[in-house]
Specification:
Helices cover 35% and strands 20% of the residues. It is an alpha/beta fold. The strands form three sheets. Strands 1-2-5-6-7-8-9-10 form an eight-stranded mixed beta sheet. A three-stranded antiparallel beta sheet has the order 11-13-12. α1 runs parallel beside α2. The chain binds iron/sulfur cluster (SF4). Iron/sulfur cluster binds next to loops.
């Protein structure tokens, strides 16, 4: 279990990330996942850490960040997997409430068909749900869901949550060249999103190295078309395309910071550079972590990225 950051987030300002799922356990194995292929597919919820352990670690991390005058806008459940697989997430949200910082959950929404998951997330202030396709074949090709998941139930659960939730609801749709970037699917997704009435509907592109090398971002024309289609039907549409920036916080241990941030958030070369200078360190640390097989360097769309090398999950 790790709390990390604050890291700059395109949607949430300065966000302290809560990584409460061991790498990488997910209900999906999206072709564009920036964390690589899913190590363990799972659809049953379970306990990974005790809720007290999670809240203790997050609280200690927040205290340290506030002591250094780091500003925090959100505490965000954004593990290297699907956050709602954690059966304690509702309790963890409750335990963290007294910190007085808004709480966000970035979910793939695949378990929203479960009443307990919907109830757990009602306590959050901001929830993002992934909706890359409403056509079942595309959902299977893009998100590669766990075999126990049913497409209709997932979409029904998403609607039920949107109806019940009083916080800020966001949706995220990743556009992949040759899969869901045609106008027809964009129309269907926009119709579905209209019923959800999200505060913001994000149109995203894979800007970091994807799990499958053949995945390419939709081209400009397709992005524009999707944006127009969404914009006609929805209140607020926004691109989620740019890089978040490099304002990563140094919390006192450069090796730990690099490993905990990059395990959920591949960093670009400039971001690593800035973090190293905040820590008064040079690239030797990064080169050593690469030699020790803890970090990997990847080239993607003319940028160098640094990612945590995920261990093989044994259980
Ligand atoms: S992108 Fe999110 S939902 Fe998809 S496989 Fe990766 S962690 Fe899971």
């Amino acid at each position: 279990m790790k709390a990390y950051g604050p890291v700059p987030s395109r949607r949430l300002g300065q966000s302290v990330g809560i990584n409460h799922i061991p790498p990488k356990i997910c209900t999906y194995s999206c072709v564009y996942c920036q964390l690589g292929r899913t190590i363990k597919m799972q659809s049953e919820r379970r306990e990974f850490y005790s809720p007290e352990e999670v809240s203790r670690e997050v609280e200690a991390h927040v205290n340290k960040a506030q002591y250094r005058n780091e500003h925090i806008d959100f505490l965000t459940f954004v593990p290297d997997g699907e956050p709602t697989l954690d059966i304690n997430i509702g309790r963890e949200i409750e335990l963290l409430k007294p910190l007085g910082i808004k709480m966000a959950v970035i979910s793939n929404a695949s378990l929203m068909w479960r009443e307990d998951v919907r109830r757990d997330l009602l306590g959050a202030d901001w929830v993002s749900m992934k909706i890359d396709a409403v056509t079942e074949t595309l959902w299977r090709r893009i998100n590669r869901p766990h075999g126990a998941l049913e497409h209709k139930a997932v979409l029904g659960g998403i609607k039920a949550f949107a109806e019940a939730f009083n916080g800020e609801l966001a949706t995220e749709t990743m556009l992949i060249k040759g899969l869901n970037d045609g106008g027809e699917e964009a129309e269907k997704i926009a119709d579905f999103l209209t019923d959800l009435r999200p505060e913001k509907a994000y149109v995203a592109l894979p800007t970091r190295p994807p799990a499958e090398k053949w995945v390419k971002p939709a081209d400009e024309q397709a992005i524009n078309r999707a944006y127009q289609i969404f914009d006609e039907k929805l209140k607020h549409v926004e691109y989620l395309i740019g890089y978040e920036g490099n304002a990563f916080a140094f919390t006192g241990n450069i090796e730990e910071d690099l490993l905990s941030i990059t395990s959920v958030h591949p960093m670009r070369e400039e971001g690593v550079d800035m973090l190293l200078s905040k820590a008064g360190e040079n690239w030797d640390t990064v080169h050593r972590l690469i030699e020790e097989h803890k970090l990997v360097e990847i080239e993607y769309q003319e940028n160098k990225f640094y990612m945590r090398k995920l261990p093989i999950h044994s259980s």
